[in-house]
Structure formats: structure tokens, C-alpha cells
Design goal:
By secondary structure, the protein is α+β, with helices and mostly antiparallel strands. Helix content is 39%, strand content 11%. A four-stranded antiparallel sheet has the order 4-5-7-6.
Length: 219
């Protein structure tokens, strides 16, 4: 168990999870009076939270840093910056303000749109067919050992259920068809022969009352 946890931690750089949980676009407490006090920078070496541009220039001059941007109240980062330090294969990219970006965290949808054939493996957001995840956060969650096992188990569980359903439906349809055929065959009158017809015609005459007061039957 401990070995699996260590393997999960080594899969990603140490700064990634802290980055995804950081709150950006707040006012810097050190440079609150400056017009550049918005915290939209992150130092990959120090991992000490969101920084403003003045903090970055003063204390992190030679460090690796990235800039976070915003789109519809969600944090994004340019592909040109993040792909230098992280493998983003499988994460859908978007073009915003002429720049290609990826989202940091998931953005669930109430329901997939009509005609959607591919969705994020974690939050089920609509995606293009060539991608698996909608954000960096979903890639971390979706490639973890626990999530992969659940996904494989669900996939294997669905197959026999579908096959059984198809088989039952086929059996039911065949059974119903046989029953219907049997019923139709039972209620289909046979064509009388000429001799039988003449015999029936001769028997038709004056009704006779059967003994013991039975009902009168006409042939």
C-alpha cells in the first residue's frame, strides 16, 4: 500500500498538486498599494503560493515560474509554458485570445450536449474525440491507480450485462413469436371436405329435444 502511494507521488512533479489547489487573482499582501498587486504567478521551485509580479521580480528572479490566466472565472495556463515542465498528453487544449491553453481544474457539466461521443473520464465534460481529460486536475485523478481499476472493472462488468440483455431479449422475442404462431394455428378452422359438407347438410333438420331436459343443440 505504501509502495503504491509513493509511486503515485513520484508520477507527478512535486509542485503540480500545490499549484492546482492554489487560489489565484487575489491581492498581494506585501504590495497591496501597487497596481500590479494581483497574484497570478507561481514559482515552481518554492511552491509558496500565488505571487504578484513584484514578488516574483524581487524574490524569485532566477526561479522557474509560470503565469496563470483566467477564462470565464476558471484558471488556465498557456500550453507553451506548461508543456516545458509537464506532459499534458490527453488533456484537451483551447484557444483563448489567440493563445492555446489548458484548464487547471475540472469544470463539470450538468449533462453532455446532444450528439456528444466523447467525455472527460473524470467529470464527464464534453471533449473532442482525441482527448481523455478536460484539465490537468482530471488527468491526475483519471490516471491514478484507483481510478484505472474502477474504470476497468466497470468496463468488464458492463459487457456481460449487455450480452445477457441481448440474449434475453432475443429469447423473449422468439418465445413470443412461437406462442403467437401456436395460437393462430390453434384457432384457424380446417377446410371441410365435400363429403363432410354433404353429411352436415343432411343432418340439418327439425330440432330434437334430448332426454333428461338437456339444452337443445342444432347441428
Amino acid at each position: 500500500m505504501g509502495g503504491g502511494w509513493m509511486e503515485e507521488e513520484k508520477r507527478w512533479p512535486p509542485w503540480l498538486k500545490p499549484l492546482l489547489s492554489t487560489r489565484f487573482f487575489v491581492q498581494c499582501k506585501v504590495h497591496a498599494e501597487s497596481h500590479k498587486s494581483e497574484c497570478n504567478m507561481y514559482c515552481l521551485d518554492c511552491m509558496n503560493g500565488a505571487l504578484c509580479s513584484l514578488c516574483l521580480a524581487s524574490y524569485h528572479r532566477d526561479h522557474r515560474a509560470i503565469q496563470i490566466r483566467r477564462s470565464s472565472y476558471h484558471d488556465v495556463i498557456r500550453v507553451s509554458e506548461i508543456q516545458k515542465v509537464l506532459d499534458i498528453t490527453g488533456v484537451q487544449t483551447y484557444i483563448i485570445n489567440s493563445a492555446r491553453v489548458v484548464f487547471l481544474n475540472e469544470r463539470p457539466q450538468p449533462r453532455p450536449g446532444k450528439g456528444v461521443t466523447n467525455t472527460c473520464e473524470v467529470c464527464e465534460r464534453s471533449l473532442l474525440d482525441s482527448f481523455r481529460f478536460c484539465s490537468l486536475g482530471c488527468k491526475i485523478a483519471g490516471t491514478s491507480n484507483g481510478h484505472e481499476k474502477k474504470r476497468k472493472k466497470k468496463k468488464n462488468w458492463d459487457k456481460p450485462m449487455t450480452a445477457a440483455s441481448d440474449s434475453d431479449e432475443s429469447y423473449t422475442s422468439t418465445s413470443r413469436g412461437s406462442e403467437k404462431s401456436s395460437v393462430v394455428q390453434s384457432f384457424t378452422p380446417s377446410t371441410p371436405t365435400a363429403a363432410g359438407f354433404r353429411s352436415a347438410k343432411r343432418r340439418k333438420g327439425i330440432p330434437r329435444r334430448a332426454p333428461f331436459g338437456s339444452l337443445t343443440l342444432e347441428f
